[in-house]
Amino acid sequence: MEKKNTIKMKCFRFDPNNDKESHFETFEIPSNGAISVQNCLVYVRENIDPSLAFFINCRLGFCRRCLVRVNGKSCLACTTEVKEDFMVEPLLKEKVIRDLWCDGL
Ligand code: FES
Q1: Number of separate domains in the chain
Q2: Ligand 1 neighbour 78 (Cβ under 6 A)
Q3: Measured in angstroms, how far is the CA atom of residue 67 from the centroid of ligand 1?
Q4: 70, 49 contact by CB (below 8 A)
Q5: What is the DSSP string of 56-76?
Q6: Residue 1: is its pLDDT beyond 70?
Q7: Which atom of ligand 1 is nearest to the CA of 55?
C-alpha cells in the first residue's frame, strides 16, 4: 500500500493592483509520489485559492508558455515533476502580471 504524502509548495505571490510588495505563500498538496508542478498549481487553484495566477497552454512541453523557476532553476511547469517540498517563482519577476504569470512568455 502506498504511503500518502504531502508536498509543500512555497509560491511567489504578487498582485500589482493590490500589493505593495511580493510575498511567498505555502500550500500543501496531497501526493502519492511524483507530481508535476502544473498539477500542484492546478490543485491549489481548484481547491485552495482560485486567485492563483499562472499560465498553461499546451500541457505537452511544446509552447513554453508555462516557464517558471523551481528552486531557482527555470523549467516548464507542465513537464517538471516534484517529489519533495519546493519553491516556485515567476521566470521574470520584473514582468509579472500577477503571481507566476509574466508578460512576454
Ligand atoms: S503548457 Fe506548453 S510547454 Fe507547458
Answers
A1: 1
A2: yes
A3: 8
A4: no
A5: -SSSSSSS-TTEEEETTEEEE
A6: no
A7: 1
Contacts of 61-64 with CB under 8 Å at 24 or more apart are 64/105
Give the DSSP letter string of 23-50.
EEEEEEEEESS-EEHHHHHHHHHHHT-T
Per-residue pLDDT for 4 more than 80? Answer: no
| Distance of CA 8 from the midpoint of ligand 1 (Å) | 22
Grid coordinates representing 1 are 500500500
The residue segments making up the domain with residue 62 are 5-102
Q: Decide: 67 in ligand 1 pocket, CB within 6 A.
A: no
Q: What pLDDT score does 93 carry?
A: 87
**Residue 51 is part of a domain; what is its CATH number?**
3.10.20.30
C-alpha angle 20-21-22 in degrees, rounded to nearest 5: 140
- Segment 72-91, tens digit of pLDDT: 999 999 999 999 999 999 99
Specify the pTM: 0.92
In which residue are the cell numbers 521566470 written? Answer: 91
Query: Could you tell me the three cell numbers for 20?
Result: 505593495
